[in-house]
Amino acid sequence: MTHAHISTWAIALILFVVVLFLTKAGKEKGAKITAMILRVFYILIVVTGLQLGWTLITNGQYALKMVLGIVVIGLMEMIAVRTRKGKSTVVVWVLFVVVFAYILHLGFSLPMGM
Ligand code: HEM
Predict the structure, then answer these.
(1) Computed from CA positions of residues 1, 68, 42, 95, in that sequence, does the dihedral angle turn out positive or negative?
(2) How does the average pLDDT of the chain come out, rounded?
(3) What is the pLDDT of residues 56-105, one digit of tens each?
(4) How remote is the C-alpha of 9 from its chain's centroid?
(5) 2 Cα–ligand 1 center, Å
(6) Are 26 and 85 in contact (CB under 8 A)?
(7) Is it the case that residue 1 has pLDDT exceeding 80?
(8) Is any ligand 1 atom within 6 A of the Cβ of residue 65?
(9) How much distance in Å is there from the Cα of 40 to the middle of ligand 1?
(10) Cα–Cα distance for residue pair 55/75, rounded to 1 Å
């Protein structure tokens, strides 16, 4: 299950970068389709994450991991939408990098995985 979880967020990360490049390149249709596939992967990240740890949801560190996982997804979506609308993404990028780094640390230091 950990592999499925890592695969889903790794693929989501790649799709996220593709969406940003397509948006920047003005390829609206491609960006839209990729963004929809990306949203499916958001769901898969949450499902595989919950499969890993929903029974541990009352454990503070696991609850934090799950909440921050959803926060990271929210930040990715905000960056994608704000990039499309031409709004500033600096603040959201900073938050994304910080929370992402922290969640990687948290995920790998929690006991169940690799
Ligand atoms: C983009 C978002 C996310 C990233 C980058 C991420 C990253 C990770 C990483 C690196 C691990 C450790 C895997 C291992 O040790 O082999 C992990 C495990 C885990 N993740 Fe996520 N995750 C994300 C979203 C979520 C979400 C949304 C949930 C729950 C709703 C969740 C729940 C869990 C649980 C329960 C574990 C098991 C922890 C353990 O090893 O004991 N994650 N995640």
Answers:
(1) negative
(2) 95
(3) 888 889 999 999 999 999 999 999 999 999 999 999 999 999 999 999 99
(4) 6
(5) 8
(6) no
(7) no
(8) yes
(9) 17
(10) 26
